[in-house]
Amino acid sequence: MSTQTASTASKASSTGGAAAAGYAVAAGNGLSKLVHSAFFTNFIAGGMAGCVSRTVVSPLERMKIIFQIQTPGSHNYNGVWATLVKMWKEEGWRGYMRGNGSNCLRIFPYSAIQFASYNVYRPFFLAEGETELTVGMRLIAGGIAGITSVAMTYPLDITRTRLSLQCADLSISRTETPGMWGTMKDIFKNEGGFMGLYRGIMPTIYGVAPYVGLNFAVYESVRKRFSTYEGGEPTAMEKLAAGAISGAVAQSLTYPFDVLRRRFQVNTMMGNPYSSTWHACKVIFAREGIRGFYQGLAANLLKVIPSMSSSWLTFEMTRSYMTKYL
């Protein structure tokens, strides 16, 4: 009896071990397929592109945000060079990088989701028998990708904006600088929970959808033109140029939406009683005129060239490396 029981237990143990080994092999195969998938490659390459581009232009990004939310008549920050010097004198190199940590935490998933989802949506807009999207279809696919990335990462964006302003001389009432998680917790606790963390998302979506659509459409069109001229793969300099052109065009055409987004994100900090996007437009126009919608545009154009150039080049290089060696 005991021998039969031991035999049964041994068989059960053997069966369980075989099942566990089978699950491990299946999991390993699944992980291998994921790592070698186009989605994973685009996701990692897109995240790397975002982090590199934001770090390269972090001082200019913070300066742009300060210009966007500075109230009319304020002369604390005037001019690109004077502002960079003021930031250095008052805060040192930390002032240039303030908010960049949270920005990279935000931009990695944001950029990763954007590039990966664009390549997921892309096949759905291809005409039958075609291998390339039309310019219009690139705009649509890119716009949807932009909305997807914003919806998933917006709380990190509003937190980064608040952090960028914590030490800026803008007469904003504050007692301490709690850091990224402390700022996010404070917004959640005092500004309506998740609604506070998503404050300003609608003007953000209004701007991001056409911006990302234009970015993808212009870059792929210019890249294709360079490929035609050279008869093969564009050079690194041509990819940098294509990224600069796409970023400049997209940012210039959608910049007022970016201003609206920043104003909503610091609405409670600055005491601006914006109740809706249309109301914000009316108030900004009444107080500041049409120029109010383009505050910080010069600084933005100054940063967009190195930002988008480095972003697209990093994406292409990372994707090429992963495709070749993984």
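The record above closes out task 2.4. Task 2.5 opens with a second protein, given below.
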Amino acid sequence: MDRWSGVLKVPLHPSSRILYRVAASLCLSNNSKTLVDSYVPSANAIFFNGDCVQGTGNSVIERLSNVEEIVEILVSKFGGSVNAWVVEASTFNGPFAVYKDFIPSLNQWGDPKSYSPKGFPASTSTVSLLSNCLQAAKKAISGRQKEPCQLGLSPSRSYQPKTFILGFSKGGTVLNQLITELGFSKVESIEHSLQIKESDVQEECQMLPNSKESLLNSLAEIHYVDVGLNSAGAYITDQVVIRGISKRLAEGAGGIRFVVHGTPRQWCDKRRNWIRNEKDKFVHLLESEAEHSEGKLLVCERFYFSDQPPNLQMHFEIIENLDVS
């Protein structure tokens, strides 16, 4: 299957002057070379990137800091049937990523003061941003082809793709906000959100979630990728949130898998021992609820480069070494 890859610069809202930089790698129809003529991706893999690291002189770090490189790694990990997206924060305070549209309660360095479901900002912003990215990609492909890019719908598919969310380093804060919103979201509209009437279908609805409810209902995998902060809040430790997710599963929500990936850079940092403590509590809370989920809540923890002393290179190399099986 052919693909289109590129880096898009799009606003979250039409009136916004602030642009997000998003790398995308999207499935194309083999015959028409358009964005999905008769094909719906199996999943959308969405990767939230971390702080900006430049000038290290380390070729490995420089390469794995490149969003275009990361998006291709995602495709290699999850398979050619996925659409992959790598999102950078719209705002940086020096090197520090500030995801202020996704997490309203942040300090000036982008560290969270708290996580709250009020207004569902992360899920709403994710849906809006990716919808705008899809429209920008259509224009880019049409410009290359010198003819309109038509999005078609598959008559054999009347459901939306799954959603895989990954958060790397500071990007893990967006995962925490999404999980908080998931834990407080209702389950009543799950069936409705997955059923699409032909007369009401918009092109992007088949490719992307078109509401915060459909995004949260489509979440199938959540990957924490060597997350860490210079303050508390790297992982969710609120039992109410995790129990809320478990309650959703009991009420009919689709199964979800959490995978926690880490290196000695974060998990063995004695100056920031709260990272390991938060991770351990997060995993414990998930495992406790998983025991009563009848297999619908899965938890996996993976430790990379465990025989090496902590260093910055391994923090980026984990992206290339991710085991998402």
